[in-house]
Amino acid sequence: MEHRIIDQPLGVLQEKLMALGSATEAALERAMQALTTRDSELAQRVLDEDVAINQMELEIDRMSIEILALQQPAAHDLRFVISVAKITPILERIADHAGNIAESALVLNNEPRIKDYVDFPHMAEIVAKMLRDSLDAFTREDADASREIIKRDKIIDEAYHRVFNELLEQMIQDPSLTTCAAHLLFVAKHLERIGDYVKDICELNVYLREAAFIKHSM
Amino acid sequence: MEAKIKIASLDFFYGKAQALFDVTLDIPKRQVVAFIGPSGCGKSTFLRTLNRMNDTIPGTRATGDVVIDGENIYSSGTDVVALRRKVGMVFQKSNPFPKSIFENVAYGIRINGIHSSKDDLNDRVEKALRDSALWEEVKDRLNTSAFGLSGGQQQRLCIARALAVQPEVILMDEPASALDPIATQKIEELVVELKKDYTIVIVTHNMQQAARVSDRTAFFMLGKLIEYNPTQKMFTNPDEKLTEDYLTGRFG
C-alpha cells in the first residue's frame, strides 16, 4: 500500500517533535550566549519563549494519545509513537534547564565578572552538539550513532567536576564571590543534567530502531 | 511450556492445489494461540486440520504430523468422532440446532453417553452454560427455542455446546466476527477465562482481538507460517518484515 491513513498523523507528529527539538536547541544556545556575552535581553527572551515550548509539549502529548486511541499502531509505528511521547517531556525539561541558565545569567550579568567562563562555552558546546546529534539520530533512526553519543556524556561529567572544583576553590579564596560562584555552579549542574537527558533521548532512539531497552545497562 | 499439540511438516491439499506448506509449530497447553493473516492465507484450513474437520471436504489430503497428547491424529487408527469430542470447534456463524436452549447443550452429552442420570445431565448442561457465561441470561427460559437468543448469546450457546462434551482443546474460527462490540467483548473475556481449563486456538481477522486474548500469535501468508511468537513480541517487535508489513497495514 503506497499510503496508509496513519502515515499522515505520524508525519505531523515527527514534524512537531523536530520543531520542539529546534526550539529547545535554540533556547540552550541563547541561554549560554546570554551568559557568556552578558546579554540580559537575550536571557529574558529565553524565559519568554519557554511558554511556547510548553505549548508544543502539550500538543505532542495530545496528538500521541490520539494516534494510540484512533489508529492503534503496532510494531514500528507503535515504537515510533512511544518514542516521541517519551522524548517530548525530555526536551521540555532540557528547555527548562536552559531557562534556569538564563535566570542565572540575569543575576550574574549584574555582578562583576569573576572568572572567564572558559569551561562553560566548551561544556555547552559539547552538550549542544550532543543534543543536535541525538535529534538527527532520531530522524535517521540511527542506533549506532545514538550509542556513540551516549559515550560522550562522560566528557560532560568530567568537565562538570573540573568546573565544580575550580569554583569551590574561588569561593574559599574570596568569600565575597560566593553568590556568583554559586550561580555558576548551578549553570554547570544544568549543563551536566542536560547531558544526562540527551543520553535518555539516545536510549529511546535505540528502542525505536531495535526495540531494545538499553536504559540502565550502559 | 508443555505442548498440547505438536504440528510438524504439515502440508495440505485441496485436490491438486496446495493450501499449506510445511507448517511446524507447537501449541502450548492451556494457552490461547491466535492465527492471523490475510484472507486465503490458510489459517482456517490449518485450524481445521487440528480436528480433521477438513476430512469432510472431498479430495482433500494432509501429509505431515499433527500430534495431540502424543498421538498422531492422522494415523490410520484414529477415532475421528472421539477426536472431535476432544478437540471441539466453534464457527464464525453461530449454528444452534432448531431446538430448545437446554437441548442444544444436552444433545452432545446424550449422544456421547457422558451423563449418568437425569440430574447429572441437568448439572452438566448448567455447568456448560455457566462456563460459557450464558447461564444467568437463560436460566429462566431453558426450554425456549435457541433461535430466540441474540447473536452473541447464540455464539455463547455454541461454546456451551462445545464445552458440554468435555473437550480439551477448543478451536474457534472467527467466533466474534459477526457480533457487535459488546458481544465481542464477552466472547473475548470468555476466551481468556476458558484458557484456565482448555487449550484454545482462535482464527481472527481482528488483529486487536488477537493482541487482547492470545498468548502466542502465528502469522500465515500464502499457506506458509511466516512467524510464530509470543503475542507481545509479535505486536511490538516482530522478527519478520512480512509480519511488520501486515501488522502496520502495508500490504497492497
Task: Summarize the entry for a quick read.
Helix content of chain A is about 85%, strand content about 0%. By secondary structure, chain A is mostly helical. The chains are: A mainly alpha (about 220), B alpha/beta (about 250).
Main sheet overview of chain A: none
Helix content of chain A: over 70%
Please report the number of helical segments of chain A.
6
User: What is the N-to-C succession of helices and strands of chain A?
Assistant: HHHHHH
Largest interface: A-B, 13 and 15 residues
> What is the chain-wise order of helices and strands of chain B?
EEEHEEHEHHHHEHEHEEHH
- Give the termini distance of chain B in whole angstroms: 37 Å
Provide a count of the helices of chain B. 10
Beta percentage of chain B is: 25-35%
Distance between the termini of chain A: 39 Å
Biggest sheet of chain B: strands side by side, in what order?
A: 6-7-8-3-9-10
Radius of gyration of chain A: 19 Å
Structural summary, described in words:
The complex is a heterodimer of chains A (218) and B (252). By secondary structure, chain A is an all-alpha fold. Helix content of chain A is 83%, strand content 0%. In chain A, helix 3 (75-108) packs antiparallel against helix 6. The N and C termini of chain A lie far apart (39 Å). With 252 residues, chain B is of the alpha/beta class. Helices cover 36% and strands 27% of the residues of chain B. In chain B, the strands form two sheets. Chain B has a six-stranded mixed sheet, with helices on both faces. A four-stranded antiparallel sheet of chain B has the order 2-1-4-5, with helices on one face. In chain B, helix 3 (101-111) runs parallel beside helix 6 (151-164) and helix 4 packs across helix 6. Chain B is globular, with a radius of gyration of 18 Å. Chain B starts with a strand and ends in a 5-residue tail after the last helix. The model of chain B has no long low-confidence stretch (mean pLDDT 95). At the A-B interface, helix 3 of A face helix 8 and helix 10 of B.
